[in-house]
Amino acid sequence: MADNPFPVMLFAAGFGTRMKALTQDKPKPMIEVAGRPMIDHALGLAEQAGATRLVANLHYRPDDLRRHLEPRGVVCVIETPDILETGGGLRNALPTLGAGPVMTMNTDAIWAGPNPLTLLQAAWRPDEMDALLMGISPANAVGHQGDGDFTRDADGLLRRGPGLIYGGVQIIKTDLLAQIDARAFSLNLLWDRMLAASRLHGLEYPGRWCDVGHPDGIGMAERLLEGEDV
User: Fold this and answer.
1) SS3 196
2) Which domains does the chain have, with CATH numbers?
3) Whole-angstrom Cα distance, residue 192 to residue 16?
4) What's CA 22's distance to the chain center, in Å?
5) Which of 46, 67, 95, 168 fits 106 for a cystine, CB–CB 3.0-4.6 Å?
6) pLDDT, tens digit, for every residue of 25-66?
């Protein structure tokens, strides 16, 4: 496969409080699913998609993650003294990521099906899109409660409302980050501006997906990878 033209940002700074005791002595992305740290599942997808520039933001127990990631060629950006959330974390990493659109990945999800990154690459239309999000039908989402975050029309435009769950993977332009005054903020602020301009698009993932943000999600994800009905 040709090199991925987008740098990949791995969100790995969170405290993992929903994991309770499992994150007392390790960061959430280092919790194992099917014998591998969760972040390695995300890394595998990025590498399979041809990514050559990989960046991770770190905050909670950063040394554990840095020792694991740097030998894999991942550039680590430590957020200090405070965590910056997804929007602030992405903006803080821009000097390392470079100009232009980037792909971002949450590191607490497991995908069973085609590589979501390659699907996004194939569908990306920069003249029409400021961001392209991967959504999951609630029927294909394991370990996640709720009716979804976005509705999607026939042209792929997104609106807020029940329909698709955001799966934690996207291509996004970073220009608008400079317009936000807050230091720590969610990417939802950026999405809202794109929504208002009818520039936020989405795909529906054809496979299944598991949220591993809570302890029960580990077993669910492992059964999903084994092909069991969960």
Assistant:
1) helix
2) 8-225 (3.90.550.10)
3) 26
4) 21
5) 168
6) 999 999 999 999 999 999 999 999 999 899 999 999 999 999
Amino acid sitting at position 142: V
Distance CA 230, CA 221 (A): 9
Using CA atoms, how far apart are residues 199 and 156, in angstroms rounded to an integer? 10
Residue 81 preceded by cis peptide, ω within 30: yes
Model pTM score? 0.95
pLDDT at 2: 42
3-class secondary structure per residue, 28-87: HHHCEECCEEHHHHHHHHHHHCCCCCEEEEECCCHHHHHHHHHHHCEEEEECCCCCCHHH
CA-closest candidate to residue 42, choices 58, 54, 60: 54
Which two structure tokens, joined as six digits, stand for 215?
Answer: 């302890």
In this structure, which long-range contacts are made by residues 88-95, counting pairs with CB atoms below 8 Å and at least 24 apart in sequence?
Answer: 88/182, 88/183, 88/184, 88/185, 89/9, 89/11, 89/13, 89/57, 90/9, 90/57, 90/172, 90/174, 90/177, 90/187, 91/174, 91/177, 91/178, 91/180, 92/57, 93/9, 93/55, 93/57, 94/174, 94/177
DSSP 179: G
